[in-house]
Structures are given as C-alpha cells and as structure tokens.
Amino acid sequence: MLKRKSGALILLILFLILGSRGQAAPEELSVSQAVEMALENNLDLLIARSELDNSRIIYQKNKADIMRTGSRYAELQNDLTLLQAEDRFKQTENQVVRDTIDRYFRLILGEKEIRSKEETLALEKRRLEEMEQQVATGHRGQLDLMRQQGIYNRAAFDLEESRQDLLDDQEEFQYRLGLGNMPLLDDEALLQVQIIEVDREKFIEEGLAASIDIQIRDKQYLLAEMDLKRALEADTPSLDLQEKENSLEIAALEIIKAEQGGRHRLQRTFNNLTRVFNNLELARESLQETEESHSIILRQEEAGLITSRDLLASRINLMDSERSYLAALNTYLLGALDIKEARGHSLKEVLHEAISD
C-alpha cells in the first residue's frame, strides 16, 4: 500500500512539473519574468534542486550520528559533501540565469537584424530595377545587370536564413521556458543595463574570499591532516605513513594551486569587463556619429539634394549601428554578471542590480 501511494505521489509531482510546460505565455515578457520562468521550468535545474535536497537530508542524518560519536573527522567530511552539493546547484542555477538572459537579448538582436535585412533587400531591389532601366536604355551592360541580380539574390538568401535562425532560436527559447507560444519581448530592456564600477584589487580579494574551490581545498587539507595525525598515533606501517604524508603535501599544494588559479581567473574576469566596456564605448561613439550623419542625410533628402534610395541606405546603416551597440551592451551585461558571480553572488538575486526592467 505504501509503495502504491509513493508511486502515485511521484506521478502527481511529474504531472505538476510537466503540466506547466507548454503553458500560454504572457502577451509581453520582461527579462526578469523570463529568468523566473526558466528557473521554474528548466529540467536540469529541477534535477539539481532535488539532488541538493537529498544532500541536505543526508547531511542532517549524518549530523545526528556525528553528534553521538563526536567525530571531528566525520563532521568535516559531512560539511565538505554538503558544500560541494550546494556549489553544484549554485553553478547550475547561475548558468540557467545567464543562458536565459543571453537568449532573450539575442532574440531581440535577431529581430532587429531581420528588419535591417528587409530594408537591405528593398534597397537592392531598387538598385536592380534602376539597373534594368539603364540596361534598357543602353547606359549599362548585361554583365552589370547580372552582378546586381547576384547581389539581390544573396540579400534575399541572407534574409531567409536569418528568419530561419530566429525561428529556431525562438523555438529553443520557448522549450527552455516551457512556453506554448512566443511572447513579445522588451526590445528597450538592453538600454536599462547598469554600468558598474569595480576596483580591481578589492574585486580579487572578495573573489578569493568567496571561492568555493578554495574552501573545499581547505577542508580537504584538514581531512588529510587528521588522517596523518591518526596514522602517527597508531601503529601504522612506514609505507602507509609515507602515503598519508604525501597526501597531506598534495592537499597543501592543491590549496596553493586553487589560490593561484583563482587569482588568475579573477584577473581575467576583470580584464574582460574592462575590454567589453571599452568596446561598448566605441559602439556608443559609432552610434552617435551614425545618428548625426543620418540627420544630415534627412535634411539633404528634404531639400531634394539626394534620392530616397540614398536615404534608405543611410537608414540601414543606422539600424546596423544600433544593433551593434545593443550587441555590445549584451556582451557587457554578461561580463558584469561574471563579476557578480565571481564575488559569490547568486545571479537571480542580483539581476536587478545589473538590469532594471
């Protein structure tokens, strides 16, 4: 009877989890809503959460036994096992947050790319029609027409390829969030990315202090030290004793390796943020220059100094520049999230600090 009830409970849980997948999406979906839905529906994270729950149950059961025996060694082992389980879950959760944000904004960029390519196709069609007229009047040759036809065909192919890529990305996004349809996204959200100030030395110091890898190595060293101490107190054969001495030396070296490796990774994370910030500033300046140039083109078109085709070409250039700036913002946002994760933060808890939507 108990087995039958347990099986029914498991089926009910699975029904509730899987039943939420394919749900109707809201008409509009913000970044924070997308992250929340991903955290609720990502199957890898659901598995990781259940595994963490099991680890905590085992930890509590072991803790009760340790209190009776008073074993410091068993206590350290128990703490280490739980620490590793919590770290695995946190890494999985942070990856889901980062991946969702990146996919959200890449969808927006994909939509903007398609609009730009639609305009490009319209421009190349105009050029093709003009070329046909010039060939008909004898001002251009068939070779020029064939060349322009090839340019138009490539533009049409690029547009269809981008549309298919966007469709594939949308389907993947829906699958990961458990959505039955594709909602509207906030294409202004990237403009809400917050620029953060980071002191290099303070960041490295905080990152090392928050490093789970170093904490794990410290506990492993304590366990190896206790192993050796117990071996010295017992009648341990010399070869076994030497093995435990070597294990302690390895544990000490692993701490040094973790600290050096951690410092190096933190330096690279900081340097990456500096680099993507510089790229962001370049993209911002380029956009400003393109906007100024487009304003001049608009005035020239109003004065009849240029053709509508020239205006269309300028508009396409502006759209591409805007997309490049938004792509640079997305790259910067991911770099800023890396900084926060390296400081030991849970990304879902600090998302509002990186972007306000």
Task: State the end-to-end CA separation.
Answer: 51 Å
Number of strands: 2
Question: Which CATH top level class of the largest domain fits?
Answer: Mainly Alpha
What percent of residues adopt helix (DSSP H or I)? over 70%
H/I helix tally = 10
Largest sheet features? 2 strands, parallel
Structural class, by secondary structure, is: mainly alpha
Tell me what the CATH architecture of the largest domain is.
Up-down Bundle
Q: How many domains, in number, for the residues?
A: 2
Elements, N to C (H/E): HEHHHHEHHHHH
Mean pLDDT: 91
Spatial sequence of strands, sheet with the most strands? 1-2
Beta content: under 5%
Describe the structure concisely for a colleague:
This protein is mainly α. It has helices at 2-19, 31-41, 43-69, 72-136, 142-177, 200-210, 212-233, 238-302, 308-342, 347-354; strands at 28-29, 184-185.
Salient structural properties:
mainly alpha; 357 residues; single chain; two-stranded parallel sheet; Outer membrane efflux proteins (OEP); 2 domains
